[in-house]
Amino acid sequence: MSQTAVLPPVTTDRDRLLHDLEALSEVDLIVIGGGASGLGVALDARLRGLSVLLLESNDFAGGTSSRATKLVHGGVRYLAQGNISLVREALHERRALLNNAPHLAQPLAFVMPAYRPWEVPFYGTGLKVYDALAGSASLGRTEWLGRARTADQLPGLKTAGLFGGVKYWDGQFDDARLALTLARTAAAQGALLLNYCPVVDVLHENGRVSGVRWRDALDAAGREGTVRARCVINATGVWVDDLRRLDDAARGQDTTPMVAPSQGVHLVVDRSFMPSSEALLVPRTRDGRVLFAVPWLGHLILGTTDTPRDAVAREPRALPEEIAFILNESAHVLARAPRAGDVLSVWVGLRPLVRPAHEDEGGTKTISREHTVRVSPSGLVTVTGGKWTTYRSMAEDVLRHCQDAGLVPALPPGRTAGFSLLGAPPPGAPATRLTDSPGLHVYGTEAADVQALPGADQDLGLGLTEAMVRHAARREYARTVEDVLARRHRMLFLHADRAMQAAPAVARILAEEIGSDGDPDAFLGLAEQYRHVPA
Length: 535
Known about the structure:
Domain Alpha-glycerophosphate oxidase C-terminal: 440-517
Domain FAD dependent oxidoreductase: 28-389
Family: Belongs to the FAD-dependent glycerol-3-phosphate dehydrogenase family.
Largest sheet: 10 strands, mixed
Radius of gyration: 23 Å
Helix content: 25-40%
Keywords: FAD, Flavoprotein, Glycerol metabolism, Oxidoreductase
Distance between the termini: 53 Å
Number of strands: 22
Strand content: 15-25%
Shape: globular
Structural class: alpha/beta
Protein name: FAD-dependent oxidoreductase
Oligomer: single chain
């Protein structure tokens, strides 16, 4: 039976949160990093009775965890690689996520068009295996489609040379809002979470990790403090090696990097290029990569790339060749090929892939997407790799390692598998599809609370209202214009120009709510990057 989160604190007032942090001397568990991995650990640990502090240097999901391809999937490409265990785990976790947050994660049908006669039986047979691995967690059966049905399922598909297609089921989600919901659910259960509060040092006593030093990034005076902990989790994604260096330096050791960053670029275009409720998947492009065309929040996402990168910038930039790859491959399958001038937003995420023991020349496409947990000699627990779909099982694995290392006491069984997140409607309740334009439906059962705030009838564009901005400031940890327009609402990711137009109004409302305009100039500079298509 599903359990449900209790109502969250009335507000996420930062002064109150900082007061609580300064009053905190010691906790069972400190989690560093507010992305999928860290938030999953925080909720799991709190539900098992541990006292939990989570600190995020930027905003929740401000890095990789807001820049996914928006898919909750078992990993068709992993099946092709023969990684059956990862596929089976991901398919199980896919069902749990869709059950626990149906307003933010839902089934989505995919169609693979076939332009060569052997592709339908070849891919169809593989996807039947995918169905079998899903078992009772299946979202729908795989179907072979003829030419006419394939074209009907994917309006806007190029039909010249089309033989047919294969339809199968996976899921999609709103990654940033899921992260935020995990944060608020953990807070509702008694965890303390702060964004814009980086860890500037890892403390050691007698050769063991004993806590952290934090700093308020929004305080010009550099407000800071320390908190002790039995266990410290490094869940900082592509930045895990930075914290590992602090830990290793305290022991006089050099650090061997764990992460091999890979860059994934996504382009957003108008839904008219493929006005379908199903997604398109090309399983093997001309260079061996995968191409998606995914309907999401009233728009169409095209992607993605898999480019090795050495730098781990907060805002990575797309390379001209990545843009060309996506547009060129899209032109092979879409009747009306998108051009650079059709792109509404460009966004880039860095995947924290775990370096293999012996690196080869295969690039990041060959690196496993499984997560890794390591416990250093001083007791720092690092988790990296993995993917959004398996965030919950990753959290369980992290806590298992903590127990095995004696860093936390013996814990009761995990409760997250059947724990509904904040806003989750009851089973069987009708849900607006995530392929539709953004609106109140992403708030689930909290929609009425949002509507009760001032400005519910004042639209700022793409379904964002003044009331939603107030809700973001009062109850969702939002501190900047970027927080609101990139992650509480997804306008920046959908249409950079529209986000720039909305920024002044958002800044005005934030000034009313939190006494700060949320740095609209910085946001406008960021939005320029999202609207620019490198050539």
